[in-house]
Automatic annotation (TrEMBL):
It comes from the Eukaryota. This is Fatty acyl-CoA reductase. Keywords: Lipid biosynthesis, Lipid metabolism, NADP, Oxidoreductase. GO terms for molecular function: alcohol-forming long-chain fatty acyl-CoA reductase activity; alcohol-forming very long-chain fatty acyl-CoA reductase activity. Its EC number is 1.2.1.84. It catalyses: a long-chain fatty acyl-CoA + 2 NADPH + 2 H(+) = a long-chain primary fatty alcohol + 2 NADP(+) + CoA. Catalyzes the reduction of fatty acyl-CoA to fatty alcohols. GO terms for biological process: long-chain fatty-acyl-CoA metabolic process; suberin biosynthetic process. Residues 19-195 form the Thioester reductase (TE) domain. Residues 271-369 form the Fatty acyl-CoA reductase C-terminal domain. Belongs to the fatty acyl-CoA reductase family. The lineage of its organism: Eukaryota, Viridiplantae, Streptophyta, Embryophyta, Tracheophyta. Signal peptide: none annotated.
Amino acid sequence: MSQIYQFVFFFILAFLTFGRYDIALGINTFGAFNVLNFGKKCDKIKLFLHISTAYVCGEKAGIILEKRFYMGETLKGTHSINIFEEKRTMEEQLAQLRCHGAPDKAIKSSMKEFGLKRAMGEMLLGQFKGDLPLVIIRPTAIASTYKQPFPGWIEGVRTFDSFIVSYGKGKLTCFPANPNTIVDVIPVDMVVNAMVVAMRVHYAERHVCETIYHVSSSFRNPLTLSDLRNLFHCYFIKNPWIDANGLRVKVGQLTFFSKANRYLLLMQMKYVLPLKVLYLANILCCQRFKKIYKNLNRKINFAIQLAKLYEPYAFFLGSFNDGNLVELQRVAEEQGIDLVEFNFDSESIEWEEYMMNIHIPGLLKYGIKS
């Protein structure tokens, strides 16, 4: 594997690490803006390639095209976005939290919630790129490697992997989701391959103005939440999770709730209210149930936060058109690029084979920290 391939490979994983809005805004948005300004000062620069995400579209439905967003354009249909105003608002909230002496954990949580209410896009690059050729890569949910450097490698638990791990441990029995929602996932090495090939093709052409690529699977090779549920159910029936006591965890079929508020009501009635009773009992019994309470409280909060965090994706009704990416494959083949070595064709993924024999085993081996 070449040095450029390794660099891009680990960069795409690092790009997906930041959950806090202040960090994400500073690095993924204004960081890219600073690099753009640097690049415009370089005499021999040929191309600027930016890694974004397909979900800059917000909560749109239907077929989502590979088109740019403009400065001030609304993404969620609720308000117009001014990226510089976003930065000012974020800095004000962060300063207020620090002024009140909020602990780091509270600041991190607050910044995550703040980020969920706002969209980050590619407005700055499109607005200020000038004559610099710009290529934007928009991957969807990143999954473990398909082939390179070897099948199944992933670092950490990402996106829908939280569901798989929680389900395998027996901690997730129900979840708010539309079973017909398409889970758009793409192996990380296919994203890297698309980046490398795009750089090669557009560098050779040298006349590109701006091109956007969805590196995705939903349009030509869809995998629904119902399909995914059946696959990881089948996997953990055949390969049960072994708990801390050396016992096999038995799993049932995951139940989907068609409305998020029904799920949250269930959590309140079945878990949160009894937990409050346990909290009072713990006080009355001189902290006798403290350890049990803390453990249950952590698990219940995790389940509720997971549902809130992934609600937009669990009910997402869009699919990402990747016509530009298909055209990139055609041009690359004409230029003699080996598309077997640099495969980024999502249509080549056989989901049952990939999930059962590559992704889930790889996740459990490489993604779970012992």
